[in-house]
From TrEMBL:
Keyword GTP-binding recorded: yes
Keywords carried by this UniProt record: Cell projection, Cilium, Cilium biogenesis/degradation, Cytoplasm, Cytoskeleton, Exocytosis, GTP-binding, Nucleotide-binding, Protein transport, Transport
Organism: Candidula unifasciata
PANTHER family: CILIOGENESIS AND PLANAR POLARITY EFFECTOR 2
Taxonomic lineage: Eukaryota, Metazoa, Spiralia, Lophotrochozoa, Mollusca
InterPro entries assigned: P-loop_NTPase, RSG1, Small_GTPase
Compartment annotation: Cytoplasm, Cytoskeleton, Cilium basal body
Protein name from the UniProt record: Ciliogenesis and planar polarity effector 2
Amino acid sequence: MDSGQREQLLVQDWLLTPEGADVLRSLSVNDKQLMPYGLLERPILPASTHLEDVHYKLIVVGKGAVGKTSTVAHLSGRTVPDVHSETAGIQTTKIYWPVKIAHLNKKVLMNLTFWDTGEVSSKKFDHIFPACKSELDGILYLFSFVDKSSWEELPNLIARLTEPGDTLATTVIGTKFDQFAHSEVSQRDLRNFEKRWQTTVLKISNVPTCDDSNGLGAIISLLNCICNNLLKRDVLREERK
């Protein structure tokens, strides 16, 4: 597989086709947000479509109050908290996301489990971070556009959580993008970071939209990107064998 194929593994507009839209509809509430699922629950998909299940574990990291819990809530169809409160212990959230892999012409149901832990808890209890890293597939690094220190902390955070030879799928997300007019992170900062780390910085607002029809539209590209990064990780692992 050449580098271009490896960078973009998904058929990006598959969810806009009748088949993809039908699958997404079965996973959503009134086509406005994803249906929340418990850890032991599984969605009922259209009988006409077969999707292979693949399971991934991801942790969500970043400075306290950047919006880790709100981001996971937004992506999973849960209520976004109005005010910040420290996450106690470990919180796990299940998200099912359908994709079509271009080079395999195969449809897959990405079974994503997000692990979120509060900053205080992870420092207080020694077992929390090792539990999060066990059998890990990917990391979501979060910062807030209106908190420069959370942005400046990213390089050290990435260096601390990755080791030479790691094949973890990494995704960087900037939160509170709705407050971009007050952003403490410049466009030059973003460009330099993306060039250095060879990644794209994603953006999310985590506020209710006035236009409900954009509910799912606001998360499609973001979840597609997270899934594409996980699949790229799988391809790289296979190529190294």
